[in-house]
Write a structure and sequence with these properties.
66% of the residues lie in helices and 0% in strands. By secondary structure, the protein is an all-alpha fold. The chain has one domain (4-261). The chain is globular and about 55 Å long.
Length: 280
């Protein structure tokens, strides 16, 4: 049997993996969307018009997860991949975080919509229960899958070099820029949004997600649930006031967790846990 140090090193994803992670994440997503930007007619003829539910759009969205799975499998093989996926089973976190995820996020969107003035004036966007169910399923299997890459692999690697606040902000910049091509394409949800407000929201969300990630010992589950909650189709359209409120929340989270956010003492830096992840 290998010594413990050898076992740890065998499953340790090196920091240099951050570069191929970015190359795969951006190359796949920007490559697909870039072809639709620069060759729209040809791509439409061959693959059909691009929408938010097109298979190629899903492939672009899954790029960070594909990159993470590829690099984890390359480093740790099937055992490492199983341990990595075991982080989906991590769910323990403080009650305040659960209150924020379950109650706080809906309040942000409701309050933002009230500030915008459309809380009681715009009808519910989904006409039937079936449409609601479909929208919820699509929201659950689209954006949250990104978290296998962003918080699953990228954040732990960045936290080896930087304190959580800086790692979170760096990842927020990368995350925001990664979405840029979607804002240049008609037929996508992002095409109707303001990129500047979205980018600011990415920074705020990344700071909040970093604190949540470290408090939950590297839970991919809670990171994905946070992502889903922000995309929940039930919530009213609150742009850009939801972004303003998220920035305020990020500042409060940063102040409340200032000791952990400005030092590396409580940082989760392992992509593949040294032992099987468990919820206990």
């Amino acid at each position: 049997m290998l010594p413990n140090t050898s076992v740890r090193e065998a499953y340790r994803v090196p920091f240099r993996s951050f570069t191929p992670f970015l190359l795969i994440s951006f190359g796949l997503a920007w490559g697909i969307l870039g072809l639709y930007i620069f060759l729209p007619e040809r791509m439409g003829e061959v693959f059909g018009q691009l929408t938010g539910n097109h298979p190629l759009f899903f492939l672009a969205v899954y790029a960070p997860a594909i990159a993470a799975f590829t690099l984890v499998a390359r480093t740790g093989g099937l055992t490492g991949l199983r341990r990595f996926l075991g982080r989906v089973l991590l769910w323990r976190c403080g009650a305040a975080w659960y209150a924020f995820l379950i109650i706080g996020i809906p309040l942000i969107f409701i309050s933002g919509s009230a500030l915008r003035g459309n809380l009681l004036t715009e009808p519910f966007p989904l006409a039937s229960f079936q449409a609601l169910l479909v929208a919820l399923v699509l929201a659950a299997i689209k954006g949250p899958i990104e978290e296998f890459g962003w918080r699953g692999l990228a954040l732990p690697l960045l936290q080896r070099k930087f304190a959580p606040i800086w790692a979170g902000l760096i990842l927020g910049v990368i995350w925001g820029l990664w979405h840029l091509p979607a804002f240049l394409l008609s037929g996508t949800q992002q095409s109707a949004w303001s990129f500047r407000a979205f980018f600011a929201g990415c920074l705020a969300i990344s700071v909040i997600a970093t604190a949540l990630f470290n408090r939950s010992r590297g839970s991919i589950l809670l990171s994905a649930f946070f992502h889903f909650a922000l995309m929940n189709p039930i919530f009213p359209d609150a742009q850009p006031y939801d972004t303003y409120l998220l920035i305020i929340v990020a500042a409060l989270v940063l102040w409340w967790n200032r000791k952990d956010m400005f030092t590396k003492e409580a940082s989760v830096t392992e992509v593949i846990p040294r032992r099987e992840a468990a919820d206990g």
